[in-house]
Task: inverse folding
């Protein structure tokens, strides 16, 4: 932010200078041109008449030429001044923004064909998610992604529902929910089945709730009663409190009072509509086996957070001449830990307290018999013969007894 501000300052100074130039020198320029033209006209007349220049004419001509060269020299100075201001802006940009990101990137990552394909698919999915169909189609064509139409169809449906919800039309979303509720119940993993069923029923419940509230607001209480009879019984078990609140709101509305003044005013909150869109996208993505956020935006956001720290460490390493220690092409690991914030934490990681490095598949975390956890590398280093002394609670044990743990 500071960098942007300091460049903006230079730009402001430059535009001030240009404005000043316009107001003072512009007038002078017009005047000079005027004089030149009138001199030219005079000279033309003299040439046509064929007579020689009178001494007075010669004198005025010399005067004009002299004035002209003065103007040219002042303009030269002004021009030099302006030019230096323009180059100052360029220098400010160079000074405040890093232009060389090479050191923080790895070019080999997208060299192989299947890696490139995966990258294209991620970009494609991002565009489809955001309903940018034209650009996605072109990308699918140019990148020769054959199965692009499969995700396209699903996202097209999703976008249509989201658009309808934005206009407060519940029809398409309700249709989607009832059509897909059986799919949700048939979730592939047995363990997640219960969760998805709960989610899907809660989406349906939320949709019915909004429709019900709409009916109340429109004053169609009888219709609302019918609606509740038809749709709510299936949700009474899982959403008892919500159904109770809705019935309470119905009592208020049918007694002729407006909901705004009732204890149920919160049911009219416009946030409920925003909430339903998020909920729907979440459910729809889960059904398609996709993450809620677009993977492309997750990666780019994470990169934007990490980049300043990476550039910083590169600079420090160059200054201390230890740049060779971190060769990003050789390691899958960063030289420092960068906190990306809670929204970028997807799963737990374990850093070995002894070696201070993140555990990997080759170097997994191990639980010792005393309950302390260290990495496999640390265990190997600490083991002497068939004995290992825990570095924390010096319990002596057999390193073979350590168990690998998974987070
Ligand atoms: Zn221990």
Result:
């Amino acid at each position: 932010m500071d960098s942007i501000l300091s460049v903006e300052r230079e730009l402001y100074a430059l535009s001030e200078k240009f404005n000043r130039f316009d107001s003072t020198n512009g007038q002078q320029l017009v005047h000079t041109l005027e004089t030149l033209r009138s001199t030219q006209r005079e000279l033309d007349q003299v040439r046509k008449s064929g007579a020689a220049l009178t001494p007075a004419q010669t004198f005025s001509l010399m005067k004009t030429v002299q004035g002209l060269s003065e103007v040219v020299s002042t303009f030269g100075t002004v021009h030099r001044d302006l030019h230096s201001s323009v180059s100052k802006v360029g220098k400010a940009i160079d000074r405040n923004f890093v232009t060389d990101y090479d050191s923080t990137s790895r070019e080999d990552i997208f060299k192989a064909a299947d890696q490139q394909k995966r990258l294209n698919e991620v970009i494609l999915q991002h565009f489809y998610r955001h309903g940018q169909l034209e650009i996605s189609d072109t990308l699918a064509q140019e990148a020769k992604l054959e199965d692009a139409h499969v995700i396209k169809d699903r996202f097209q449906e999703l976008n249509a529902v989201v658009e309808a919800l934005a206009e407060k039309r519940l029809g398409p979303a309700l249709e989607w929910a009832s059509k897909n509720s059986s799919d949700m119940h048939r979730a592939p993993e047995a363990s997640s089945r219960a969760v998805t069923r709960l989610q899907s029923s809660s989406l349906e419940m939320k949709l019915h709730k909004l429709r019900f509230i709409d009916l109340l607001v429109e004053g169609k209480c009888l219709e609302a009663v019918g609606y509740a009879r038809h749709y709510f019984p299936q949700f009474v078990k899982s959403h008892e409190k919500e159904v109770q609140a809705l019935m309470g709101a119905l009592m208020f509305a049918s007694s002729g009072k407006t909901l705004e003044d009732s204890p149920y005013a919160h049911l009219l909150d416009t946030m409920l509509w925003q909430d339903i869109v998020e909920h729907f996208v979440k459910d729809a993505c889960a059904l398609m086996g996709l993450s809620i956020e677009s993977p492309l935006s997750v990666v780019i956001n994470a990169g934007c957070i990490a980049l300043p720290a990476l550039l910083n460490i590169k600079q420090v390493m160059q200054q201390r001449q230890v740049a060779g220690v971190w060769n990003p092409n050789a390691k899958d690991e960063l030289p420092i830990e960068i906190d990306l914030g809670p929204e970028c934490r997807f799963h737990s990681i374990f850093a070995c307290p002894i070696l201070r490095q993140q555990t990997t598949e080759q170097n997994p975390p191990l639980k010792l018999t005393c309950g302390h956890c260290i990495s496999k590398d640390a265990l190997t280093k600490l083991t002497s013969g068939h004995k290992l002394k825990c570095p924390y609670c010096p319990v002596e044990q057999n390193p073979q007894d350590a168990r690998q743990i998974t987070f």
Remarks:
- The two ends are 38 Å apart (CA to CA).
